[in-house]
Amino acid sequence: MKGLIYIFLLPLGLISCNNDDNDSSNCDKIVIVSSEDYETAPNDPLTINALELNGDCLKINFSSSGCSGDNWELKLIDSEAIAESNPPQRDLRLSLRNGEDCLAYITKELTFDVNELRVDINQVILNITNSDDSILYEY
C-alpha cells in the first residue's frame, strides 16, 4: 500500500518543485507582435534607462513625467520584420500612453516575455528603437 501511495505522490512532488527562475510566466507582460501597432500605438515621451534579459524576460527600466505612473499604459511592440543579418535582428518599441499631467519624474521597471521573438537559430538581436539600445537574446 505504501508503494502505491509513493507512486501517486512522487509525480505530484516533482511537478510542484519545478522552480525555474527563467520561466517566462514570471514576466509582467507579453510582447505584442504587430506591424500596425508598432506604427500606430501611443508614443508619449519616456526614457529607457536600462535593459536586461533574464531567460525569456526582458526587464526594462524606464522613466517619464507623471503623478504616480499608476495610470500609464505600456506595451512592448515588435515590428514583425526580421533583418537578415548574423544574428538576425528584430525592432521593438516601448509604447507609453501617459494621461498624467504632473511634474514628477517617475521611474518604473517592467518585464516582458520575449519568447515569441525567437527565430530559427538560437539568438536574435532585439533593437529597442526608442532607446537606441540593442540586446542579444540567446535561447
Give a verbal description of the structure.
- By secondary structure, this protein is of the alpha/beta class.
- It has a single domain (22-138), classed as NigD-like, C-terminal beta sandwich domain (Immunoglobulin-like).
- It is 15% helix and 46% strand.
- It contains two helices and nine strands; from the N terminus they run αββαβββββββ.
- It has helices spanning 2-16, 35-40; strands at 29-30, 32-33, 47-54, 57-66, 73-83, 89-97, 104-113, 123-128, 133-138.
- The strands form two sheets. The chain has a five-stranded mixed beta sheet.
- Strand 3 and strand 4 (57-66) form a beta hairpin.
- The longest helix has 15 residues, at 2-16.
- The radius of gyration is 19 Å and the shape is globular.
Short description:
By secondary structure, this protein is an alpha/beta fold.
Number of strands: 9
Number of domains: 1
Number of helices: 2
Uncertain parts: 4-22
Helix- and strand-based class? alpha/beta
Enter the CATH topology name.
Immunoglobulin-like
Describe the global form: globular
Name given to the CATH architecture = Sandwich
CATH class: Mainly Beta
End-to-end separation: 44 Å
CATH superfamily: NigD-like, C-terminal beta sandwich domain
Strand fraction: over 45%
Percent helix, as a range, is 10-25%
